[in-house]
Design brief:
By secondary structure, the chain is mainly alpha-helical. Helices cover 84% and strands 0% of the residues.
């Protein structure tokens, strides 16, 4: 599939599907956190954020970069010069993740989980749910893999639905019923309900993905070597950023109280709303970037990146202004009066997210064009600087110091990738006035074509 018309049509239709899924996911996440703040104590809420962080890191490590590689492998197999090896890559991906999950979850159950809870966080709440936390890691890893496999097939709607929208709707519905009928719950019950929601999502998503898998060309064998050749560099590049980023909340959990963790974690989740528009376009463009780079069409790559930067940047600015002006009131409204003290934390995080939104998607460009090592270097450098700053400030300022460290690392990372893309690859990714008009024309043109 080639030509600017087909690219623009896929961009608009994919963005619409991604927007619907991401908005449902975001609204569900907001509802989940708001309800949890009312049915759990602040101490339990802090423990929940720590466990969620552990699950996030554990699932990411279990995937060994396969969830990123599968997008590139399936997208590249669409090109005429490549054979259709999608089936071999998919089989390899699911088996590699299985091995990764058994290693990570097994290690967490048989020793590391208890050690982490007792010696780092000093939390009985975290230590009492080690086994179900390991199960959460397993389900989260396969949920992400299923979603990314759909993305490789350009099935953006299914990718966003099974990435989090379905799980979020199921979970917020059950939690809301509990809130209305009972009024409170325990941390263990909340995690078990989360596992049930994830399991249902994986079963439905797996059966749907099987239909696409059967349509691929039948090829015997499993391409472990080819999959790992792409996934391991991506793993080093993509795991560095989130894993280092999660160290901030781990430091806070180790040094401060679970109440402070609850306030910081609540503010951090509200700040993530700023990048929802960018997450939407980033869920659509990776296979497009991979295909265009494979054809050597860097001019079209820049057109896609800068147009989507405008589409994502303008709503992000509006969100920053609205949330920033009423940060304390927003925290109180969503989570309750106890969390109002996180208003300034939210303001700092919002500012960093706004800067990141304006740079567009340089990370997607670098990862889909074979520059994974550059992403890793920027991630490690910025991440270490941010973590060091967090460690210095957390003793005196608590969650506020952590937010400054997080914001510093995030901005350094995105600006570094943006500068590399601009000056070394000669591809600009940030939003610009000229692309505002192009984005408007692109949207109007596709709407009229549909009519």
């Amino acid at each position: 599939m080639s030509g600017s018309k087909s690219i623009s049509q896929r961009l608009i239709s994919g963005s619409a599907s991604a927007a619907a899924g991401k908005l449902i996911t975001a609204a569900s996440a907001l509802g989940i956190n708001a309800i949890l703040a009312r049915i759990l104590t602040p101490e339990e809420m802090g423990a929940y954020f720590l466990i969620f962080s552990i699950v996030f890191v554990g699932a990411l490590l279990s995937q060994l970069g396969v969830h990123q590689a599968i997008v590139k492998l399936i997208a590249a197999s669409y090109q005429i010069k490549y054979p259709d090896t999608s089936r071999m890559s998919i089989k390899a991906a699911f088996l590699i993740v299985l091995v990764g999950v058994l290693m990570i979850s097994g290690g967490y159950v048989f020793g590391f989980g208890k050690w982490l809870a007792e010696n780092i966080f000093e939390s009985d709440l975290v230590g009492n749910v080690v086994v179900i936390t390991a199960l959460w890691i397993l389900l989260r890893a396969y949920q992400t893999l299923i979603s990314q496999t759909f993305r490789g097939f350009h099935q953006i709607f299914y990718a966003t639905i099974f990435e989090g929208a379905m799980t979020g709707v199921l979970l917020v519905s059950v939690l809301f019923i509990i809130y209305l009928l009972i009024g409170d719950s325990s941390l263990q019950q909340v995690i078990l309900i989360t596992l049930a929601s994830l399991f249902i999502t994986i079963i439905i998503g797996g059966f749907k993905l099987l239909n696409f898998y059967k349509k691929t060309m039948f090829v015997e064998g499993i391409d472990f070597k080819g999959t790992l050749k792409i996934s391991l560099p991506l793993f080093l590049a993509t795991a560095a950023v989130p894993c280092v980023a999660e160290m901030h909340i781990w430091i806070l959990g180790a040094i401060s109280t679970e109440d402070d963790v609850a306030i910081y974690g609540a503010a951090f989740r509200v700040a993530k709303f700023v990048i929802i528009p960018l997450l939407i376009v980033n869920s659509v463009i990776p296979p497009m970037i991979a295909q265009l780079m494979a054809r050597g069409e860097s001019n079209k790559v820049e057109e896609v990146l800068r147009t989507t930067a405008v589409i994502a940047g303008i709503p992000s600015i509006v969100i920053v202004l609205v949330l920033g002006l009423f940060s304390t009131d927003v925290m109180r409204l969503i989570y309750g009066g106890f969390y109002g003290s996180g208003g300034f934390i939210l303001l700092i995080l919002l500012s960093a997210q706004a800067i990141n939104s304006l740079t567009g998607s340089p990370g997607v460009l670098l990862m889909m064009s074979g520059h994974q090592s550059i992403v890793m270097k920027f991630a490690l450098l910025s991440g270490i600087c941010g973590v060091l700053l967090t460690y210095i400030l957390v003793f005196q300022y608590g969650g506020l110091g952590v937010s400054i460290g997080v914001a510093t690392g995030m901005v350094m990372h995105n600006l570094g990738m943006w500068m590399y893309a601009k000056y070394r690859m000669n591809i600009r990714t940030h939003m610009g006035i000229s692309y505002l008009l192009k984005a408007k024309y692109l949207i109007c043109k596709n709407v009229l074509n549909k009519k």
